[in-house]
Amino acid sequence: MNPSPGHKEHPEHHVRERHLKQRMVVEWHGQTLADSSDVIQVDEDKNPPRYYFPRNEVKTEMLKRTQTSSHCPFKGEASYYALHSGDQTLPDVIWSYEAPYDEHLALKDRMAFWVEKIDGLQIKKLGASEAAAGQAARSTPPSS
């Protein structure tokens, strides 16, 4: 057991997780960085909504883990990643809780994007028709 000390010490502080039932994409300068229908939205007091994407649905080949870490008394220890594209590197703009506290185990193996630090980054919720088109595109084998 690994309970969160923050929730015990500050019961008035809320960290709410909600599984979204729609496809979401993260785009940056025309590149898709993440694409998933399994996103968790985290609404934490005094913070903007954050969207946690499964690690296996994030283009991790564009990321490099940095030595930066931070501690959240509610969620646990966060590891940070730099985003690389061409000659541009944006340090510490993506994070992950690899061993979150018990109350937030659903965040394990997920990554969130620090929107405020990435100029041009967009996180989009797709409508039903866009999601269906994207699903068809992902499942259609390339023509030979």
Automatic annotation (TrEMBL):
Domain of life where this protein originates: Bacteria
Any idea where the DUF427 domain is?
A: 24-115
Query: What InterPro entries has UniProt attached to this entry?
Result: DUF427 (IPR007361), DUF427_sf (IPR038694)
Q: What is this protein called?
A: DUF427 domain-containing protein
The organism encoding this protein is Ideonella azotifigens
Taxonomy of the source species: Bacteria, Pseudomonadati, Pseudomonadota, Betaproteobacteria, Burkholderiales
